[in-house]
Design brief:
The chain is elongated, with a radius of gyration of 22 Å. The chain is mostly helical. Helix 8 packs antiparallel against helix 9, helix 9 runs parallel beside helix 11 and helix 14 packs antiparallel against helix 15.
Length: 278
Amino acid sequence: MSLFSATRNFGLIILFTTLVALGSSAFASANNEQDKEDIQNSIIRYKSAIDANPNNPKTRLKLGGILIISGDLNGAVDQFKQAIKLSPDNPEGYMGMSRALLRKGDLKGSIDSVKSAIKLDTSNADYHYRLALLLSRSDNNDEAVNEFQQAIKLNPQHAGAHKDLGATLGLKGDLAGEINEEKRSLLLSPDDADALFYLGNAYAETGDIKGATQSLQRCVKIDPKNADAFRLLASICAASGNFPDGLKYAEQAVKLDPNSKPYRDTWQKIKAASMKQK
């Protein structure tokens, strides 16, 4: 299987994407002029409410979230600091602070903020889930696994925690554990393309080509923009001697991201191998 080269670089990328998506209202971007106008109107409204009552922590939390969306991260941090000062027992102030600090690139500060929130509410599965994602981002996979497991203990139906626990176990080399968790995630959320991607990759690494192919084909059907899945499918097909499908999948990966050297290299290697076969 010289053409098949499964990598784990995508793992941290998708985990981080999950992290950004978590609490999407605080990470949404203004996609058009109407969005931008609505955001600015919300900022004006919340600031006016704070002028009228500066001691309302809920208003400051809402303003902080809107300021993250607008890109004013320093302003968001200031609002979350004020919310925490006004209501130190409310973990949401720390969670908001975590989101703002992450956007500022302060991963350690973001992690510390979530830990402060958990001290106030140890029973919130989503807090442990977010901390696990942040720890994965910082390459602290052992602690991340513990936090994912805690999130699952608090909420066994947490499909995201099962999925990302599986991905982290895969990064640690525990492919059997990864497969088990991805299957659990898919029982709860059958159309999760990322879970199918993780499962397909784990199957490929264990030599289960049929399982890998089926999982990845389902993945690209649900998420036809997943270039990594197309690349992996291409490599699996070519390694099995199925060069026509290998070229087809490799071309699709390149089409989705023409500037990717790994995608181009995979396509060129499969093309060269198919020519030799002739």
